[in-house]
Amino acid sequence: MIETERLLLRPLRVEDVEAFVALHEDERVNRFVGAYSHRQALERLTSVEQQWAERGHGLCAVELRSTGEFIGRVGLNYWENFDEVELGWTLKAGAWGHGYATEAARACLDWGFTTLDEPYFTAMIRPANTASVRVAERLGFAPLRMDTLFGNPVAVYSLDKQTSG
Q: What are the boundaries of the signal sequence (predicted)?
C-alpha cells in the first residue's frame, strides 16, 4: 500500500469489480478510456491481479484516506505489445480538479522508480484528453512518439528515471 497526504493506493482486486464498472460507466470518464461490462471488468481485474503476481506491479485502487471512498485507479501497467510499462490514471469525474490524479500518479511513479528496474515509464494519452496531458506534464513527462492503442491514436509521453528526481 502506498500512502500520500490525502490518498491510499492499494492493488486492484477482483472484489473491486462493482466500483471499477461504476468508474467506467460515466461518459465523462470513459470517453478516453472506454467502458467495461461486468464480465469485461472481471477479466481486466483478473489480469491486473496476475500482473501483480508475475511482475510485482499493476493497477491500484485510489481511495480517499479521510473516508475510504474509491475515487479511481492509478498504476503501472506492462504492455507486451510495446514492451513498456505505462503509468496510467483514471478518476471519477467528481474527483477531478482537486489534484488527486497528480498526487496519486506521483506517488505511484516514485514507488515504481524506487522499486522496479525500469529505465523509464510511459503515459499513453488520447490527444484530446488535455487534462491528462497536463497531469503528465506536471509529472515531468515529455512527448516521445505517436502510436495506436486499442485502435485509437495516442500520444506517448515518457519520463526517464534519471530525469524524474
A: none
